[in-house]
Amino acid sequence: MTAARGATWLAASWLTAASWSAAVCWPAALTWAMAGVGALALGGCASTITDYEPRVHVVQPGETLFNIAWRYRLDHRQLARWNFIPDPDLIFVGQRIRLYPPPGAVSGSARTASAARSPSSAGSGSSAAGSRGNARAAPPRPPPAPVLPAPAWRWPTSGPVVSTFGSNAGIPTGIGIGGREGQAVEAAAAGRVVYAGSGLIGYGQLVIIQHNDTYLTAYGHNRRLLVDQGQTVASGQRIAEMGLGPEREPRLHFEIRRNGTPIDPLQYLSARR
């Protein structure tokens, strides 16, 4: 059994589940740079979501809980909780990852209300009925993930904004910054590299950095990566070289995610670089 280890499990939810319901082709002999662990993605096509169970993701070589969560726009902590994964740094090839809450995790309040309306719990003098109603009630829903303060962001590269958040001119979950091929791409804030590779189709060479338990940033369409998974980086540290994006034009795709949800980077970046 092959373990997909390291901080790389954070890299995950660039694309929606619908856009990844089709088969994904993995390039032959693609070597993944992992934090202390190497994994080889074999040639051929493999479905990342089973056709007969569309809300379950089957772990492929080189994947981590982080990049699975990123792909489906989920919080990695949710996936760990829903799948009873005590060590989020350890998942294995072939493991089935639930992409939705288990029964009771979201319906506890509804079931409790239903029990309150049932005849067995309606009687005011029956302690036994009350006990049965409590037994049927699901555990309380976990509290929402806390929102930690955002770091002091800096622009990841110099150049004009060529596509805005939500625009069809680029990947709508972030912004596109133009420039020249090979120019420096820098970390927008200090953090830890949780993904570095090319496993998410449409993003080219991609780096994802975790800044705290709330915020992640991603840097796509790179020509060359200069950091490895698990590496700690400083704000402004060079992490990659700009490559070619849509229409073969030099571009950096930049995203900020808050608790797994894409947000507009222009709301956080200064007016000009």
Query: In percent, how much strand structure appears in the residues?
Result: 25-35%
Give the CATH superfamily of the largest domain.
Answer: Glucose Permease (Domain IIA)
Largest sheet: 10 strands, antiparallel
Share of helix, binned: 10-25%
Radius of gyration from the alpha-carbon trace, in angstroms: 21 Å
Distance between the termini: 47 Å
Low-confidence stretches: 1-47, 49-53, 107-131
Describe what you observe in this structure:
The chain is an alpha+beta fold. It has two domains: 3-98, LysM domain (Membrane-bound Lytic Murein Transglycosylase D, Chain A), CATH 3.10.350.10; 161-267, Glucose Permease (Domain IIA), CATH 2.70.70.10. The chain contains five helices and 18 strands. It has helices spanning 65-71, 76-82, 108-117, 119-122, 127-136, and strands spanning 3-5, 23-26, 30-32, 39-41, 44-47, 56-58, 90-92, 96-98, 161-163, 175-178, 184-186, 191-197, 205-210, 215-225, 232-233, 238-244, 250-258, 261-263. The strands form five sheets. Strands 9, 10, 11, 12, 13, 14, 15, 16, 17 and 18 form a ten-stranded antiparallel sheet that branches. The longest helix is centred in the middle third of the chain and has 10 residues, at 108-117. The protein is globular, with a radius of gyration of 21 Å.
